[in-house]
Amino acid sequence: MRRRDFIALIGGAAAWPGIASAQQARIPKRMGFMADAPLPPVKRFRETLQKLGWLEGENLVIEFRYSEGRYDRFPAFAAELVAMPVDVLVVWGTPAAFAAKRATTTIPVLIAASGDVVNTGLVSNLARPDANLTGFTALNVDLESKRLELLKEAIPGLSRVVVLANPSNPLNRINLDTARRSAEKLGVKIEVVEAVSAADIEGALAQIKTLRPDAALLASDIILLHKRQEIADFMAKQRIPAIYPFREYAAVGGLFIYGANISVLFERAAHYLDRLLKGEKVANLPVQQATEFELIVNNRAAAALGLTVPHAILLRADDVIE
Fold first, then answer.
1. Residue 137 in contact with residue 290, Cβ under 8 Å?
2. Which residue of 43, 88, 254, 307 is 20 to 30 Å from 132, comparing CA positions?
3. How many domains are there within the chain?
């Protein structure tokens, strides 16, 4: 071998690690995402990722899996995403979080938003997350009492409240227990109507129509949120004052909304994802609870119901829709 050919060969060999490293750097990260539907907070999440430098189709691939009104699809989705495998599995809601937790103990699971993660058993410690799971919680359990109190304050002579809930959501039992304790203190009777899937919503609303309650409380559930237009239209047509957990109900005519802003939680989750994709350990990312809760009052909906919202409630409202 001629000397110059030998030098070229040695030089090329020395460059191999650098070439391999550059090629590896160009391999996009893969993220799995499980939710019931592509609702508005998902858009905020993707926009925030883009601002952080994660460009879909370039350095990030997102595998979306939507259950479309059926939580029983989540275990299969989780198994599929883990088998790929994805680098991080992002979930929205308690049922999706449980499916992800059962599917893997090694791939980081990021909860973009869910209910009470401690009382449902998802994690045992907020400050030091269990194994591979962290994220953000809207603390829905503590809000059920406040929602009932608001209905009691707003509606003269309130005595019967129907709760539209999803028994397949692990958060449901805890929320209902809280609502019943609060109702007893307020002297209000609670009647529960259940919808396990999106297909059950029509029948559940028909049952509510038969019950003719003084008011309704919507459980914190993503399937119900997905069907928000149908539910809000029904409440307006039947002239049933209702309180909802997510601000997305305001856009479809919901009367009262009280809860955490889920889009804000998704924005924060995007920052956590950025850190996880860059190699941060789950143990360094404590589960964060929502600290800000908003009250939205739809005066237009109130007027259609013939309801005058007390001035004290309007003063506390973060947003009043006229």
1. yes
2. 43
3. 2
